[in-house]
Amino acid sequence: KMSTSAISTYMNQLESQLGMQLCNRGRAGFGLTSKGLLVYEEAKKLVSQIDSFEDYIAEINGELRGTITFGILDSMLTDEHVNIPDLLGSVSHKSDKIHVNLKVSSPFELQKEALEGKIDLAIGSLPTKMSGLKYIPLYIEQHWLYCSDRHPLYALKDCSIEDVTEHALIKRGYWSNSEGMRHGFTRYSATIDSMEAELILILSGNYIGYLPDHLAKRWEEEGRLLRIMPGSFGYTAEFSLIVKNGRSREPLIQAFREEIDAAFGLVDKLGKAQNPVKQ
């Protein structure tokens, strides 16, 4: 750890070399000057460019190194179709110079950040496709409508569709208003931005909502959750691997996709779907 006096000495030397004051010092505390802020922002760009150059040279020599950012949706840990821990472990074992950055985001954010280059590749259910991205189908996830053992519907035998739809539904933050109507509901009782949040609300006893069957499985087996009229309320969500067009041949992305192929047999190295899992 560098001492305050050492930092001050280095700052004085840098200011002398650049011929400008970079920071204000005094009883009011430390702060960058307007010129100091500009230099700081450019310095960050320079460091990033140096890192990119080192990664590029390593790639030329066939060495896997650098940071790869992988995006997923929440609640995928319990999904039996895709073993995220094993996948990330396999990638990291390819080289000790690979730094994995794992991001959990909404479907919209996964796609937006993939387009912006902030995410290198991602797996998720992405019903609204964005231009500029490549979508490779992987598997199908089943969602059912659930209530908890504290909800009035839990003890109601032979309930009708009308009995169910008179209750308001939990809305996901990325759903449009028409999405609830597509699932048979016109009113919402709460809004969430993650599956875990929806599960908590359902378990409270005052809400009903759709959950992936793998997330609800434990609570259903314990009798805490009830699958409501599965013949009438349920839908499937297709999960895909996404990558920005033109990036598939980047070494780190290729290495990641090779592990997907090896682990699941779902995607070949050219990005064509092979036997997507169906339910």
TrEMBL record:
Q: Which UniProt keywords apply?
A: DNA-binding, Transcription, Transcription regulation
Q: Which GO terms describe its molecular function?
A: DNA-binding transcription factor activity; transcription cis-regulatory region binding
Does the keyword DNA-binding belong to this entry?
Answer: yes
Q: Which Gene3D superfamilies match?
A: 3.40.190.290, Winged helix-like DNA-binding domain superfamily/Winged helix DNA-binding domain
Q: Which domain of life is it from?
A: Bacteria
Cell cycle in keyword set: no
What protein name does the entry list? Putative LysR family transcriptional regulator
What species does this protein belong to?
Pseudomonas sp. (strain WBC-3)
Q: What is the lineage of its organism?
A: Bacteria, Pseudomonadati, Pseudomonadota, Gammaproteobacteria, Pseudomonadales
